[in-house]
Write a structure and sequence with these properties.
The model has no long low-confidence stretch (mean pLDDT 96). By secondary structure, the chain is an alpha/beta fold. The longest helix has 13 residues, at 282-294. Strands 3, 4, 5, 6, 7, 14 and 15 form a 7-stranded mixed beta sheet that branches. It is 27% helix and 25% strand.
């Protein structure tokens, strides 16, 4: 049988989720293409949730063609190759990680920017988090982190937590900050020693860890506009503020006090900043991060809070939106 039925999630508009159905002819795969049957996909609690709620800053920007409705969500998926073109290095039966949509089947160009073979020892569900870690890694690559640096990460969601773990691998001392106590507890479960609850007393708690020093680097990983100023205020003279979270609105900044007079570097770390000026490609990072996850050098298993059938995808988005204290890593199960 060369025809398969395909189901794909789509956001027709804010807070709306629909399922599109169609057919795919496996015999029509091109020489440089691979068709994958999805087993699991991971909901991104950042960009996907911003599109689901209609709060993405670029929805009304005519120059941005990505953040538009109808929007087909999906950041990461794992599955099995069911058809492979003659010009690829893939074979039917290969287990793979993909940068795929939430869909029962996906068609990919045979590039490691889109699809990477999983080793025999890899756990497919844990491998999904390589996509989030690749985003987090942007903040490390854009920094001038040194061994012993204190790095405050604002936001202990998936992106922030993984950024903190990756800074620790560079010999830095990460300090995770979040308003949600449960996310701080999860951070401890992923071997982050220093965590602080945001709010009154946050600076004092940070200084207790640093011995009174202001942090060398502050990573803003939430996308909350007001926290850009918080990051700038926390950072030491001649330190760095890394904007890892995509800011969900405009920000008014006292440039003289927070940047100019302090000599602070304010640096963007959007996930698209790759493969330029010596930075590695996304594909190279996927391969590296998949290995770290397989070896247990990045702790991701505690992230998985929910596994839902793909038919309950809307519930997954609502959980991430309304139950941040219990929902973080939401996986969709596409198996029959």
């Amino acid at each position: 049988m060369t025809q398969v039925e395909v189901t794909k999630l789509v956001f027709p508009g804010p807070f709306a989720l629909a399922v599109e159905e169609g057919n795919l002819d496996l015999s029509a795969v091109l020489d440089d293409q691979v068709v994958v049957k999805t087993t699991f996909s991971l909901i991104s609690p950042g960009t996907e949730l911003a599109l689901y709620t209609g709060t993405h800053i670029d929805i009304d920007n005519p120059r941005n063609r990505f953040a538009k409705f109808p929007f087909y969500p999906g950041y990461a998926a794992v599955g099995e190759v069911v058809a492979a073109g003659a010009g690829t290095d893939f074979a039917v039966g290969d287990r793979v990680f993909t940068v795929g949509h939430h869909a029962s089947y996906g068609v990919f160009g045979a590039s490691d920017e889109e699809i990477v073979k999983l080793s025999d020892g890899a756990d497919p569900q844990l491998s999904l988090f390589a996509r989030i870690a690749e985003i987090s890694m942007t903040s490390v690559l854009q920094s001038r982190v040194r061994e012993g640096d204190y790095v405050v990460v604002l936001g202990m969601g998936l992106v922030g937590n993984l950024a903190a773990q990756l800074y620790a691998r560079q010999g830095a001392i990460p300090i995770g900050v979040d308003v949600v106590a449960e996310r701080l507890e999860l951070a401890r479960m992923t071997n982050l020693e220093h965590v602080v609850q945001s709010g009154t007393g946050m600076l004092e708690a940070i200084h207790q860890i640093t011995g009174g020093k202001d942090p060398d680097i502050v990573v803003e990983a939430t996308g909350v506009p007001a926290l850009v100023n918080t990051a700038l205020e926390l950072c030491r003279v001649h330190g760095q503020v890394i904007l890892l979270g995509s800011t969900r609105g405009l920000v008014t900044v006292n440039v003289y006090d927070h940047i100019h007079r302090k000599g602070v570097s304010l640096i963007g770390a959007h996930a698209s900043v790759k493969d330029i000026d010596g930075l590695p490609s996304s594909g190279a990072l996927y391969r590296e991060l998949l290995q770290l996850i397989e070896r247990g050098e990045l702790a991701v298993e505690p992230f998985i809070t929910h596994k839902l059938p793909s038919t309950q995808a809307k519930q997954g988005y609502e959980l991430l939106l309304n139950n941040k204290e219990v929902a973080l890593g939401v996986l969709l199960d596409w198996r029959d």
